[in-house]
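User: Just a sanity check before I run the rest of the batch. Below are the structure tokens for the first item. I only need the designed sequence back.
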């Protein structure tokens, strides 16, 4: 199968699709299995490339991985965890940011860890300074080498008190995965509290960890000397659900997203309604639809949970090109997440990006050289085009634009979308999209 999708757009997407477990939770729960003395079972696991990458890394470290794809059940047995060869780990360099989360569990299990250069989407610098600072504070020694980072913990890992400069999702997960088996108590202030992190806490608690989440983003962990395996059903993917919701809006369609859940999507649903989309929450999912008439422009700011998440922004921007008036979107999580708008402009969208913090509170990217605010003026018809997928969420947005635009678009680089959207071409077929993958 090649990397090109030819899309005949201009038709509404109508029908039902299912989303399974959240990419940004499943990969972390897989890493958590390394901490258990016995096997773990994770359910509702989607068939996406990130799961393959993490499975490969776990296998390299001696974990046996058995994945029943149709059932979505992943069995992970860490009984024989061992150090992997640097060259083998390095073969995974560039494919994901998850390896950095192996540090704490491997230090506990083996006393050392090697982490290759990290991949992930090109949506900003994406540094790992918070992660390394946290590991150092637990007592790890960090040695940067040409191919990656080597870590050791000659005196074990001890609980500590840390305040994050920013509520980073990954750094909070790093701390949780390290603190649960560190000696003594750890306290994290300014923690991220995304639903995916709460579900990771559920998993760790099932394994025997003692973790409390206080008000004002403070998480406290009492370290324990051993953890067991877990059995857990992953929470649904609220990013994928919102992407299909935006696709329904941009194509004037009607999509029932089985597996979408309301509590994790409150901020998205409010915004969806303000733009003029409608939704109906059912027990097994949410129906998102364009009720006809004009969409309305909005002012929007991305934020950490419980705010409007950054990953919801790009697909929604495509729908905003069809809204009447001026919409303003202020991106405050990543400094460089509007690159995907170049292609939309090429398709006829009227979008300008600015370095200023527009339409909201000043953020840490203001007064610097980051184009992190966008003004979208609509509605503008979208014309078919040749597009190259830039990153996961930007890529899905391009796909939505191609589906909304009249004529035949060519979307290149679509295997990037397989990283986080399970069998998306089958879902497009189920929704009546006209396309061919050649
Ligand atoms: N940051 C630092 N230093 C660090 C870590 C983060 O400065 O050591 C900064 C980042 O540069 C960014 C901000 O903190 O500006 C927030 O980054 P965060 O650590 O929260 O993001 P992440 O853990 O790397 C996860 C998801 C992202 C999602 C963000 C925010 C995974 C694998 N990735 O990234 O998902 O956008 O949280 O919710 O969980 C995606 O799914 O497409 C995706 C990019």
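Assistant: Here's the designed sequence for the first item:
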């Amino acid at each position: 199968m090649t990397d090109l999708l030819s899309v005949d757009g201009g038709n509404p997407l109508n029908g039902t699709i299912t989303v399974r477990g959240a990419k940004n939770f499943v990969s972390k729960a897989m890493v958590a299995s390394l901490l258990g003395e016995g096997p773990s079972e994770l359910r509702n696991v989607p068939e996406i490339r990130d799961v393959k990458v993490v499975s490969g890394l776990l296998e390299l470290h001696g974990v046996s991985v058995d994945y029943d794809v149709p059932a979505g059940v992943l069995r992970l047995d860490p009984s024989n965890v061992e150090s992997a060869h640097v060259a083998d780990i390095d073969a995974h360099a560039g494919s994901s940011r998850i390896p950095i989360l192996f540090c704490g569990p491997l230090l506990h299990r083996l006393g050392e860890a090697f982490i290759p250069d990290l991949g992930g989407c090109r949506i900003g610098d994406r540094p790992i300074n918070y992660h390394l600072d946290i590991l150092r504070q637990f007592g790890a020694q960090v040695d940067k080498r040409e191919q990656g980072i080597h870590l050791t913990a000659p005196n074990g890992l001890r609980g500590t008190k840390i305040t994050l400069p920013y509520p980073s999702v990954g750094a909070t997960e790093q701390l949780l995965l390290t603190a649960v088996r560190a000696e003594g108590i750890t306290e994290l202030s300014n923690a991220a509290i995304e639903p995916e992190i709460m579900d990771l806490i559920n998993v760790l608690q099932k394994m025997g960890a003692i973790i409390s989440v206080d008000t004002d983003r403070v998480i406290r962990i009492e370290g324990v000397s051993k953890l067991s395996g877990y059995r857990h059903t992953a929470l649904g993917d609220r990013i994928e659900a919102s992407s299909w919701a935006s696709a329904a809006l941009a194509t004037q369609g009607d999509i029932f997203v089985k597996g979408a859940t309301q509590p994790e999507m409150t901020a998205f649903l409010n915004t969806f309604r303000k733009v003029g989309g409608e939704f109906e929450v059912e027990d097994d999912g949410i129906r998102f639809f364009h009720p006809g008439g004009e969409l309305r422009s909005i002012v929007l700011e991305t934020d950490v949970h419980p705010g409007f998440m950054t990953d919801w922004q790009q697909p929604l921007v495509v729908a905003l090109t069809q809204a009447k008036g001026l919409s303003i979107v202020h991106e405050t999580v990543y400094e460089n997440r509007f690159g995907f708008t170049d292609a939309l402009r090429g398709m006829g969208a009227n979008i300008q990006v600015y370095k200023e913090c527009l339409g909201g509170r000043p953020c840490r990217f203001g007064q610097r050289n980051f184009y992190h605010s966008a003004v979208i003026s609509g509605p503008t018809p979208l014309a078919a085009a040749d597009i190259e997928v830039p990153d996961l969420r930007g890529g899905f947005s391009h796909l939505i634009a191609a589906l909304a635009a009249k004529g035949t678009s060519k979307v290149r680089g679509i295997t990037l979308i397989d990283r986080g959207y399970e069998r998306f071409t089958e879902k497009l077929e189920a929704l009546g999209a006209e396309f061919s993958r050649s």
